[in-house]
Each structure stands twice: as C-alpha cells, then as structure tokens.
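Hallway conversation turned thread

IA: we were arguing at lunch whether anyone had actually written out 4-oxalocrotonate tautomerase end to end. Turns out nobody had. So, for the record, here is the sequence (65 residues) and right after it the structure tokens. Reply here if something looks off.
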Amino acid sequence: MPLIHVQQTPGKTAEQKAELVRELTDAYVKATGSKPESVWVTVQEIAPDSWSIAGETLAARAARR
C-alpha cells in the first residue's frame, strides 16, 4: 500500500487537512489506477521551532519579520 506523508507546520484547520488528504488520495488514484482504500496519508505537524531552513528555525525567521 502506498503511504503519502506530509510534514507541515501547525495552523491548518481540520477541514483543510481533510481536504488535503482527499485531494492527495484522488491524485494518487488518478495517476496510478490504485484503489482509494489502498492509499494511506499521514499529516505530521512540526513546530516552527523544530523546523529550520539554512540553519535558522522557522520561529526565528518569523520573529525577524
């Protein structure tokens, strides 16, 4: 079974995440011909102080703005 894993910062609503999961599943099914029930999707939320770009956390980048 395929597993699609999304990592993102917190802030999206439950409805937005549900729509994301539906759209990713639909796209995978369309591209591969798989059955929707075989597609697993996880959404992992990572705090901005635990995610960094170019050696700087997203929290620090946001504080600079």
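OS: looked through it. The first strand starts at residue 3 and ends at 8.
IA: good, adding that to the notes. The two ends are 42 Å apart (CA to CA).
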